[in-house]
Predict the structure.
Amino acid sequence: MTETLSLLEVYNILLNFQGPQHWWPGETQDEIIIGAILTQNVSWNNVVKALNNLHSAGIYTLKELDALSVEAIAPLIRSTLYYNQKALKLKTFTNFLRERYQFDLQQMFAEDLKTLRSEMLKLKGLGPETVDSILLYAGSKPVFVVDAYTIRLLTRLGFTDKKMNYSQWQEFITERIPQDVELYNDFHAQIVNLCKDICRNKPRCEICPLTLYCTYYQQNKENPVTSS
Ligand code: SF4
């Protein structure tokens, strides 16, 4: 029988098992924002290659990026797939930042959170996961980032089997844990780390710290899926 666990207990088990994750892997707020836009559908290694190319071209900030055309940005970020679309998304964001805040990120993040989030969600190509990553990791705002890994893990653990959209998942999580930027930051990072290496599509339950509490494991342990 599966033991029940709160979301906070899940976090604590992951923290003990994996250690603090110290996210986001960007040096500056500008780099975190560029990385959050580039990482859609690709691994972080591919983003690093693109950031290195941008640095080699002397591009470190959103203001410097804004001075380039979409056509000039695209080849520099080729490693991130859909690079033409991503170049356009970067320019959409830099345009927003220039017109509304004259490239002043502190001024942008000083906006009322709900208003800022809803304005950012209107930008073409920026979905809730990207916007929330920017708000949490670049702006230190209390916004929990939901992604496919989060949904996979919490569903497998048996928290719910209801089909929920992004906002419903976000609400489901945030009403069960304290509103704390550090916790939101590290919890998301813990989930991503576990799901990249252990709770993969074909999970490696044999090395997971959550087996005792996992509905998926308890239901499949007699016939485990072979991990590759
Ligand atoms: S026990 Fe297996 S399915 Fe459950 S969370 Fe761990 S890796 Fe995922």
About this structure: Residues 83-101 form the longest helix (19 residues).
